[in-house]
Write a structure and sequence with these properties.
This protein is an all-alpha fold. The protein has helices at 20-32, 37-55, 65-109, 114-124, 127-130, 135-147, 159-174, 177-185, 189-215, 219-239.
Length: 242
């Protein structure tokens, strides 16, 4: 049975649609990485920013083991909840996209004529992809889609999808610990807070640097932008009484 790709950015790749075997191979290659670098960095940054809102709100006047423990539990609990929601929504998004693709393939196969089928294929492409393919290539894709004979009755989730959701969950949760460890190791709350902020800003910078490199441009600019975002967040927290 042909396995449909789960990413709408590669909704109808010409090579993958040459036959069911090629479609399955293309999907396996796309899933082999489990989670793309931009997704990994993005999830880390989201978790880090949320943890930063809690560590930045620790007041020196309220310092003490009880306050630190409360902050740690609040930061961890928030990231646990966000990681769970993000992981579940990833599964929902994945099965929705696969269902959309199955519907698209059936619509192309059931189109009244070739022109209508080509229109459906073209509408499914992103603006960037639509500008890179010619009418001849769109027709080739339509013909390959029509030639597909084995389609799942409904979208399914597999172990790779579960592992990807688990990876998302773990990244969000683990990103909490670097910024709260100073509070657990130091008695001086002010010093711990400053070190925590420095760690957070460094993680934001290197996360932005990775995103910039992955995109192929402006890696240092993106790194500095993410660090500036973290600084602005810290300033906002302090202004609000943190």
């Amino acid at each position: 049975m042909a396995t449909l790709p789960n990413d709408d950015r590669a909704a109808l790749p010409p090579k993958a649609m040459s036959d069911p075997a090629d479609a399955a191979a293309s999907s396996a290659a796309q899933e082999a990485e489990v989670l793309s670098p931009v997704d990994r960095v993005s999830e880390m940054l989201f978790g880090l920013l949320m943890a930063l809102t809690f560590t930045g709100a620790v007041s020196v006047a309220e310092s003490g083991n009880a306050a630190i423990r409360t902050m740690f539990l609040a930061a961890l609990g928030c990231n646990l909840a966000w990681g769970l929601v993000d992981a579940v929504m990833h599964l929902v998004r994945t099965v929705t996209e696969r269902g959309r693709l199955i519907t698209l393939v059936r619509a192309v196969q059931g189109a009244p004529d070739e022109r209508a089928g080509r229109a459906l294929v073209e509408e499914s492409l992103s603006r960037v992809a639509a500008g890179l393919v010619s009418p001849t290539e769109i027709e080739a894709v339509r013909a390959r889609v029509v030639a597909l004979r084995s389609l799942p009755a409904r979208p399914h989730l597999g172990w790779r999808d579960i592992m990807m959701a688990l990876q998302i969950f773990l990244i969000v949760v683990v990103s909490t610990f670097p910024v709260v460890i100073p509070f657990l190791l130091m008695q001086d709350v002010t010093l711990a807070q400053n070190i925590s902020r420095a760690i957070a800003l460094a993680m934001l910078f290197f996360g932005g640097l990775a995103l910039g490199r992955y995109a192929g441009y402006g890696s240092w600019r993106v790194g500095l932008l993410m660090a500036a975002l973290g600084t602005a967040l810290i300033v906002a927290i302090n202004a609000l009484g943190g």
